[in-house]
Amino acid sequence: MANSLPRTLPASWYCSKPLYSLEQRAVFLKSWYLLGPVTKFKENEPVVYEYAGVTLTATRATPDDSSIAVVDDKGNRPKTHLTPTGLLFSTISEAAPSFHDFFPGLEDVLSTVDFRVRPYRRSISYHGDFNWKTMVDGYQECLHCAYTHPSFSVLYPPTSYAVINHHNWCRHIADPEKPDDGVFLYLFPIGTLNVYGGGISQFRVCPTEEPGGTRMEFDYYNVEEGEKFEEYYKFVRQVAIEDYGLCEKAQSNLERGIYAEGILNPVKETGVAYYQQRVLEMVLSQHHEDKQNKKNLQHRPADGASTDATASSQSELDSSSYSGNFNFTTRAGAGIAVST
Length: 340
Ligand SMILES: [Fe+2]
Known about the structure:
By secondary structure, this protein is of the alpha+beta class. It is built from nine helices and 13 strands. A hairpin with a 3-residue loop joins strand 8 and strand 9 (about 170-175). Bound molecules: fe (ii) ion.
């Protein structure tokens, strides 16, 4: 029985700098990111984002939503996608597939909400002493809700909470009796989008060079302003602060080395199992690709005819190399010894 239960990623995956380097190429460069509803972008007021070391700047030129342009720090225009009801997404590299290949079916759910009518109100950003996956682990289940979020649990009883997994996105159903009561989404790898009442909240768990650190970024939108908005803001910030404390404690336990990996609840933690599996698949695939590239370079005939492309590939490989201080021997028999 225990063998068939989903297992967590090893603790080393939350603490390793070399793994972050691998995740950067395996996961982050190949993903799509929600920049926000179009109401966030005011004319000629650039909005700056940073994802895994790549800076994006989004600027609206005219009142027409299609005039919002995104450029990266090298001046390139990444692939972007504007949904029919007003959400702007972007990539950070050419390695990402098309929007619909990355998020199949997502636009159908997004089309049930008009994101153009909820004004942008406020953003907040701060550092967190935890790995990006520590926060996503918590977002993807609600087993902790009853004792961590007493005020949230009154509105949304955790006993009926469910997560439905799709490809690279998950829908959270807080109360199956009220399927139309809001849209709560996890957008792989580091995004969320929560719509309820007249409000929208969105957060990004931005990874940093230090695996035990993140930059948390929140954006809030609401049809209400003044006191009514402040009431909403107080409620959502309370939930965010409660999660923050939980993540810092979880990270310090992961870093102590007494925990290796564990079993996930097969009913209540399917969202955690799903996204961790995606990370595992993408990282292993990148690892195989790196190994193959290294082998190909080693077997190249030493004829002195090394081209710029060869030199460039070698240099890329060298700069992205990692040492084996994290553990690939994990669930699903994926035991791969990393040697350098
Ligand atoms: Fe939580």
